[in-house]
Amino acid sequence: MEGLIELNLYGRDYEQELRPLIRAFLPNAEFDVSHYEAEEAPMRELCDAAEPTCLLSANAAYDWSFACILMEDWYRIRVYRNGTEVGRADGDDVDPERKAYRNRVAREIYKILARETGVSLPWGILTGVRPTKLVYEGLENGESREAIAEHLREEYLVSEAKIATSMQVAGREREILQGMNYRDGYSIYIGIPFCPTTCHYCSFTSYPLERFGKLTDAYLDALTKEITYLGGCLPGKKLQTIYVGGGTPTSLSAEQLTRLLATIREKLPMEHCIEFTVEAGRPDSITERKLQVLREFGVTRISINPQSMQQRTLDLIGRRHTVEQIVTAMHMARAAGHDNINMDIIIGLTGEGPEDVRGTLAEIGKLDPDSLTVHTLARKRAARLTTQKELYEGLEAHGVPEMLEASIAFCEEHDYLPYYLYRQKNMTDNLENVGYARYGKEGIYNILIMEEKQTILAAGAGAMSKFVFHDEDRIERVENVKSLTDYIDRIDEMIARKADFLAGNAGDL
C-alpha cells in the first residue's frame, strides 16, 4: 500500500489525465483531490514575487503530495514525499492547446515519479484505451514509420518494445481494413447479459442464471424489438459485422439460442455481412447442440475462453468449470465444424506466477485455437477481487511482465500475429491486452470497435451504440440502461433514444 495521495490543482483541470498516470506508479494508493479556482494575474504575481508556500506546500499527513498551479500557458509543479519536496517543474510559454499542455505536464510528473519510485512505465504517459490509434492515424495521414516512432518516443515516452508492438498491430489493422469499405458500412453488437456465475474479476453487466434465469425469455422479447429496429435504421449503409457478446450468449438454452439467431437472420440485412461472431465463452455453458445451432445459422467465429488452464486458479476466481470441460468444449466445437475459434487467457490472475502461465499456454498449444487473446488483469472497482480484496491477501500474482513475454514467445512460435490492442484503467504493471490470430482468422469487429473506424449499433442491457462521423472527426454515443428489468420494461425508450439521435443527425453519418 502506497498510502494516501494529496492532489491539489489550481487553475486548469487535469485531474482525469493526472490521476491514472500517478496511479500507474502507485497502484494501491488512495486519492484526496482538491480543485481551486485561480485567476491568472494574481497567480503570476505571486509566483514571480516569491515561492507561494501557501499554495505549493505539502501536508505531512500524506505519503505523496502533488501541488500543481496550471495557468493558461505556464505552470508550477511541486511533488512531496512524506512532507519533503522530491521534485519540481516550472514551465513558461507553454503551448496552451489542451493536448500539448496536458502532455507536457504529464511528462514532468512522469519524470519525477520514475526517478523517485525506480519504476519505468512501458507505455510512458499514455493512459488511454487505444494507444495504437495514434499509429494508425499517422500511417493513414502519410507519416513515415520513423516519424511516428519518434513522436511516441519524445511526446509520450513510450518504450521501444511498445512502439514496435504498436507499429506491428497498426500495420496489420490497416491491411485488414483496406480490404473493406468500412466508411460505408456499419456493425451491430448484441449483448446477452447472462452468465452461469459471475467471475470474481468481472464488473461487466452480467446476471447469474441461477438468480435471473426466469427473465431470459422476457429479455429476448425486448431484444427482438430492438434488433428489428436496428435492421432498418441505417438503410444507406451495409451491415458488415455482427458480434454477439455478453455476459455469455451460450448461457441461453439451445432453444433460446435458436430463437435469437433466427431473429438475427430474419430481421437484419445479412447479404454484405463478412463476419458473424458469437462468444461461447464459458465452457460450462457449451453443449453439442448449441454448437450445432451456431453452425446452422452461419456463425463464422466463436470464442471459448478458459482464462487459465490451472484448476486452482479457476476455483479461486469463481469459474465453476474444470480444465477438462475446456478441452471437451474445444473438441466438440471442432467436431461441429467450427474453423475459426478464439481463446482468451488472463495474465496476472490471483495466485499465479510465470510458470502457471507457461503451463496454460502449453495446454492451449495442444488445443490449437485459430486465435488467442491475451488479457492483462485490470482491477475493476466493482469486481469482487476489489470489493473483497481482504479475501485474496497474500495471493497476488507475481512476475506479470514475464508472463507477457512468455505469451509473446508462444504466439511467435505458433504463428499467431498481433492484430489489435487495447488498454484499461488499473491494469497490472501498466500493460495491455493483445489479440493474436493466424493470418486470415482475425476478428474484424475487434479492430473496428478499438480503432473507432465504424458506426456500431448496439442492442441489449448496458449496450452502447457508437456513431462515427468521419467527415467531422466526431464520435457520439447513445447508451441503453444497464438494469435487466429496466431494459425489459423500457425497451421502447431504448429504441426511441437511437431513433431520436438519428433523426437529429440525418445525412451526417
SSE layout and pairing:
Blueprint: E1 4-11, H1 15-25, E2 30-36, H2 40-49, E3 64-70, E4 75-81, E5 84-91, H3 98-117, H4 132-140, H5 145-156, H6 160-177, E6 185-192, E7 194-195, E8 207-208, H7 209-212, H8 216-230, E9 238-246, H9 254-267, E10 275-281, H10 288-296, E11 301-304, H11 311-316, H12 323-335, E12 341-347, H13 354-367, E13 371-376, H14 384-387, H15 400-413, E14 417-422, E15 433-437, H16 444-450, E16 455-459, E17 464-469, E18 474-479, H17 484-489, H18 491-504
Parallel strand pairs: 1-2, 1-3, 6-9, 6-16, 7-8, 9-10, 10-11, 11-12, 12-13
Antiparallel strand pairs: 3-4, 4-5, 13-15, 14-15, 17-18
Helix pairs in contact: 1-3, 4-5, 4-6, 5-6, 8-9, 8-18, 9-10, 13-15
Helical amount: 25-40%
- Tell me the overall shape: globular
Oligomerization status of the protein chains: single chain
Largest sheet data: 9 strands, mixed
CATH-derived topology of the largest domain: pyruvate-formate lyase- activating enzyme
What would you give as the CATH superfamily of the largest domain? Answer: tm_1862 like domain
User: Which CATH class of the largest domain is shown?
Assistant: Alpha Beta
Number of helices: 18
Number of strands: 18
Terminal CA distance = 48 Å
CATH architecture of the largest domain: Alpha-Beta Horseshoe
| Whole-number total of structural domains | 3
Strand order of the largest sheet: 14-15-13-12-11-10-9-6-16
Strand content: 15-25%
Could you tell me the mean pLDDT?
A: 91
Which regions contain 5 or more consecutive residues with pLDDT less than 50? none
* Rg (C-alpha, Å): 24 Å
Decide which structural class fits the backbone: alpha/beta
